[in-house]
Amino acid sequence: MNDLLHIGGVSLHNRLFTGTGKFADHKEMKKAIESSQSQVVTVALRRVDINGRDEHILNDIPEHVTLMPNTSGARTAEEAIRIARLAKASGMGNWIKIEVISDHKYLLPDNEETIKATKTLADEGFVVLPYMSPDLMAAKRMEEAGAAAIMPLGSPIGSNRGIKMKEMIRIMIDEINLPIIVDAGIGKPSEAAEAMEMGADAVLVNTAIATAENPAQMAQAFDMAVKAGRMAYLSGLGPTTEKANASSPLTGFLTT
Amino acid sequence: MNDLLHIGGVSLHNRLFTGTGKFADHKEMKKAIESSQSQVVTVALRRVDINGRDEHILNDIPEHVTLMPNTSGARTAEEAIRIARLAKASGMGNWIKIEVISDHKYLLPDNEETIKATKTLADEGFVVLPYMSPDLMAAKRMEEAGAAAIMPLGSPIGSNRGIKMKEMIRIMIDEINLPIIVDAGIGKPSEAAEAMEMGADAVLVNTAIATAENPAQMAQAFDMAVKAGRMAYLSGLGPTTEKANASSPLTGFLTT
Amino acid sequence: MNDLLHIGGVSLHNRLFTGTGKFADHKEMKKAIESSQSQVVTVALRRVDINGRDEHILNDIPEHVTLMPNTSGARTAEEAIRIARLAKASGMGNWIKIEVISDHKYLLPDNEETIKATKTLADEGFVVLPYMSPDLMAAKRMEEAGAAAIMPLGSPIGSNRGIKMKEMIRIMIDEINLPIIVDAGIGKPSEAAEAMEMGADAVLVNTAIATAENPAQMAQAFDMAVKAGRMAYLSGLGPTTEKANASSPLTGFLTT
Amino acid sequence: MNDLLHIGGVSLHNRLFTGTGKFADHKEMKKAIESSQSQVVTVALRRVDINGRDEHILNDIPEHVTLMPNTSGARTAEEAIRIARLAKASGMGNWIKIEVISDHKYLLPDNEETIKATKTLADEGFVVLPYMSPDLMAAKRMEEAGAAAIMPLGSPIGSNRGIKMKEMIRIMIDEINLPIIVDAGIGKPSEAAEAMEMGADAVLVNTAIATAENPAQMAQAFDMAVKAGRMAYLSGLGPTTEKANASSPLTGFLTT
Q: Are the CB atoms for D16 and D195 separated by under 8 Å?
């Protein structure tokens, strides 16, 4: 199946994006990323020692992976823009996942500031992937601002609560012309598969992998689930009915 | 991962059981079963030309597969028992999935008659897998009657409605000592994955594969989803929280 | 609205049945039952001091109420039958809610034993209301055995988890000719309203009232919710659509 | 119970707001509004013949009701502001529900434009109630802009799909200091009750009433459901448990 996802000039055959947070150590993180088969990994610039001292998280991310630095810690567009430029200047490439968060309890992104940062950074040539609170009109503005893909949250980050915002994500998939990558809240492989069956283009999973008892194995489970969900989407799901519908012939008992 | 499911003296590494109904033709069915990687396939005795004339459905089921004839068409224990014996006599082995159905609209199984047929056939040496309406006490009686596994329905057969009876299946998984195989109603790979994450031992999928636009590819999607769900179950799912929980460090903006 | 529910020769205008368990004391129970407007109240024979010593729970149940003694504590049909006869002999009337439970963890009823007790007691002239694990064929047998109404559980008793068994209850409402009274698991007035909107004939609520901070006020809330749900059912719910459907005119902006 | 909702200097004891769209005729509308007991009714300025010719919709809205004209038809903040001023100038009072919608398929509101209109109109002394796509940060901005209450949608307007955006509404109830009024999508009284149990301050229902077979009776059902949900919220809902929890004593069978 030659089913590729094109973002920012890169062609991806794997639709599971992963993150680098919450792992016990770099070794566990590395193992999980490898077994996830991810081709895109997000990393907070704060985690990167850009002066090159000490242990460097980037050393533990497989070489073939596209790095997607994120602006975690930014509370405004301005701060996000500054982090993005620093990331690029330090050689982390031109992809940037914009996270602008000033809400401390539910860590929900600020769509308005995110749109501003998207505009500025897209104009500067970044491949911009805004993380957002699912909302059709905000997503349309991000599209107009030059985003390369849209990353709506399924539920609050790190909550493992699943795709609670399904209704709006369903609508965004229907109405937005960019790739939709469900990010945050996915807690189980079945939920990742469901996102893909709905027509999402990819998912980003971090907490559910990092907080599993066996992160590397859970990463592999997510990889398979994302592939299964994508394949189901492409295979054309059968219709749902209210009543039963016999699989086996029921027309009377055998009379032999 | 050496994770085997033992039923009736057979050790299975694949936990997706499939069926033979509703396919456009035998060729499509054969292709779907092959790509599902199933090791157990159910077939209605009615579908089998036991006199050997004409095209024989059994010729199109891969050889390595354990055949699980079912008693589809039976309305009473007595009829189910008669079908089971015919199946064995015609060389289809000693596995039998008991289906006793007299409700014509929702095709819901009759637990009481099913328990009776289970007792008789288990005593005769069959490997009995009763298909049932999820109910803890009925499942306990099937266990006592000698069932080899219990097959509760997720929702009405052929409806593709998903695992609507989750609450009772969750309890049965917790309380019954036999393998639990979720059968009927599973419409999407994500639902199969979810059944496995809940701790089900296997799932049986027929309609969702046969009614897909591309049945063989959908069968492959289900195979992967079942493996993903099982692997997630074994990997220890992380906890769910009400609030957010940062994946990335948020302790203030970088000050460099 | 002259909308009456007829059971066992009694015509009820109130469709909220209540229970007597878990209240802090008899006074609180009495107040809650009164504000619930219930016309049917269930009481465990064990709670009744049939020798008339001490404080008597029956003294605190309003006089106009139809008493529905239950067989709580029974593990078999035989025990349930014995309790039922004792209840009648002690002057508690001829209604009986059959509860046969031998599962200690989830307290799920035993449908097979319940059917037996229903048959015997209905033949003896009792108005029999069997509490059951939702299952169409078992409900049909209870109907044949002479039950006056069927009481499927929404979720495990006392769990406040809501109507988790909706799929099977929906089917039972469609297929069974007796009143369906959703019993056990209803934790919120909205869930009671939903049961009524689905077409249930009544609900029984105990734990959700007794464990509220203000039981009497919660009882009133349930009364109103049940009436609201029933009235909605009778008013013909409008259709659900996938897309939006303007309530207000949207045909262009005003041009004055 | 002296439980009042204060908005814009008005104290409301009824928490069901209604609308005027989709009714067969004015007579049916009038009857439904009356039986809803609503104290706040929204009306699209487009529906009002501000030149006073012909039949006037306002004549059929009960006198004691607070009129909440809405800006339906506006695609931008500027258009909404213009409609609001026209409404006030034509004597419809100083309440205004802001609706800014440029999406034609799902009719989802534009939060950014809505925030702008809220700011301008609140500064001009309007009591501003913005209709919005549920999003915590946008709601915070509306609060800062001077909104009197926030009106998040439950699901696309007129869809009767229920409160699909529960997750975000739950968070907004927790985090926003203004009254939260769930608007759009509520299709059944049970869903209105659920919104109130979650802690919403009011709900607005139009389509579900207007498209019922008996709109006036359905309006009454919603009134009761909203009261039931509010009362349940104030009565302190009991805890939910995973296992069962006996209502009746189960400690062994009676030994008399």
A: no
